[in-house]
Amino acid sequence: MTAKKVLIVTGDAVEALEVYYPYFRCLEEGFDVDIAAPHKKKLNTVIHDFEDWETYTEKKGYMIDSNMTFEQVDPNDYDALIIPGGRAPEHIRMHDDLPGIVSHFFIAEKPIGVMCHGSLVLTTIADVVEGRKMTAYHACRPEVESIGAEYMDEMNYVDDNLISGHAWPDLPSIMKEFVKQVKGTTVNS
């Protein structure tokens, strides 16, 4: 039996927990996982925490390798997609190859996990996201609504193959549903 293949799209300033947790969780399930970024390199991660501020704080995190570039990705080779948050979505969404990659997973109805600020990547593909329901970090609500998606004020939300979460504390619920969908055991509406 061939292992399921999962693609993670990210870049420098990805939230450490939102890339490491899904990466290791997918490996634990026996999935093949590729991390694609604008450049094949060691990516800098950041740690966002909820301290006594009105917003999150940011510190430097661990490094993680991207093993391929966006140009090298053939989305047909993958069964599922993960878009972590952090600040990476702000800049990777402008990469010419990324919208086509992400659109493929919506059109092919493959599982898509989007965490926190990962929703910003979807602003370049409004045509395939319009009418969907999702959650994201509350500061991303205007962007979610600007692409015609309905913002759900919940910590995690499943709209068919789109599994979205508010922030890294919601990863257990997000990844539980994501793994189920990749294995083909459930699709919730």
Automatic annotation (TrEMBL):
Molecular function GO terms recorded: peptidase activity
PROSITE patterns in the cross-refs: PEPTIDASE_C56_PFPI (PS51276)
Pfam families attached to this UniProt entry: DJ-1_PfpI
Domain of life: Bacteria
Keyword field: Hydrolase, Protease
Residue span, DJ-1/PfpI domain: 4-181
Biological processes annotated in GO: proteolysis
Transmembrane region(s): none
Gene3D superfamilies per the UniProt record, alphabetical: 3.40.50.880
Keyword Protease annotated: yes
Family: Belongs to the peptidase C56 family.
NCBIfam families: PfpI
Name of this chain's protein: Protease
Organism: Halobacillus faecis
